[in-house]
Design goal:
Blueprint: H1 3-9, H2 13-25, E1 31-32, E2 37-38, H3 52-59, E3 73-78, H4 92-100, E4 104-109, H5 115-124, E5 131-133, H6 142-145, E6 149-150, H7 165-173, E7 175-176, E8 179-180, E9 183-189, E10 192-196, H8 197-202, H9 208-213, H10 219-229, E11 237-239, H11 244-250, E12 257-260, E13 263-266, H12 271-285, H13 302-305, E14 309-314, H14 318-321, E15 333-337, E16 349-359, H15 365-380, H16 382-396, H17 400-415, E17 417-418, H18 422-425, H19 427-443, H20 447-472
Parallel strand pairs: 3-4, 11-14, 16-17
Antiparallel strand pairs: 1-2, 5-16, 6-16, 7-8, 9-16, 10-14, 10-15, 12-13
Amino acid sequence: MTNVKRTISFAAALALTAGITACSSDNSQSVTTKEEITTVTTEATEPKVLDEEDAKTVEEIDMGEEQTEDVGTVKWLSFWDLNPANGKPKSVELELFETKYGGKIEYIPTTYETRYSDLSVQVLGGTSPDLFPAADLDTFPGKAISGMFDPFDDYLDFNTDEWTVGAKQLSDMHMLGGKHYVSVVSTDAGCVMIYNKKVMEENGFTDPAELVEEGKWDWNTFKDMCMEFSDPDNGKYGFDGWWFEINFILTTGKPAISVENGEIKSNLMSAEMERAQNFMLDLYRNNIPLPKEEFSWVEQPQRVSEGLTLFYPCGIWALYETDLSNFGEQGDVMFVPMPKDPDADAYYLPSGVDAYALCKAAPNPEGAAAFMRCKLAAVRDEGGQAIAEKQYREDYGWDDDMIDMWHKTKDLTNEHPVIDFYAGTSADVYTLVHEPIKAASYRGEDWSANREAVNDAVVSLLDELNAEIKEKF
């Protein structure tokens, strides 16, 4: 399973439930050749009809403006569908889009590997789609600089109260020349620490959820629990998962690569990066991370339910895309946000995003903007969120404690959301930055040596991109 699919999955609760399910069950694909792009249209399927109470809830959602009767069809190029799979419910925003605006979503399938080449072929061929997924944070700033996307500002007002605080902050980070090239419509936990409550109790640990409520969940309490639990001779380790390192760094409030006022900046030499890397090096030296090489570099979520791994840091997608039994019986599975950096001035958290880019020369930008408004309305409306909660309980086995923590984590993330742009800057920057970030935790390598080896090259690449930004925007 690809990183991008996972990142999309945790982005916006109800918004993505239908899309991911459709993606996982869809067998269509697009094929790019030198001469042409061939897309396959998925067969129409019948979604589950909303029950009478939920339909009435959606009908009563105030869009805050007079709706256009028919905004037409919005073409969506992606490797997952915004339309629901057979037998699955429509998302609240899709129901709003169809009933309030008379709109439709036409799914143009692609694959993760070919999505950008397919987009390029369509844009250059004069058959641009309208919307493209930006949740994996690899569309900006590089693809905007290269001219694959247009700004939303002629069609969306980013200064209205439609936006939550976190979505507004992150949308504003995706600006070049004073224009928004990505619409972030909601935030969610970019990474959570999944655990088993029974295992915590059996080991005499305070439930991390209680530590969150008491304001005591931080790097130190996390480390103390892992130190006490880990016992390599008996195959017990503090944590597993592929998504720990960069998300841990983001709790400092300082990403590896940031975009500030339309300028790309490297933070590889920052004190925050060094503090986080040294902490992870200490974890490695104390045999706390699961040694991935001993497990063929395959993550082992089931070890949480077996009481052999204490924490599984991952996107919240893991709790509604996979079997909860990986982590334990229903009622025992729980999660908390990433621990707070005790030296930071606020509780910064890695943010997942439900985010979209407007394709260059999109044929229906007004329709795309209308769909964005529907997504914003679904997020801010309490009734819409209640429908999401019901689906989490009925479809994914969540209990009240998980629902409460989901809200708590979303609220904390919205206050101080942090994202990293190294994946979206350029392929060369990604290559230079990605491996050194993991080296302390994976191999016990010293951060200061690794950053010295790559920083000058990263800064040089960013200087070139910043010069291009000044020239084009």
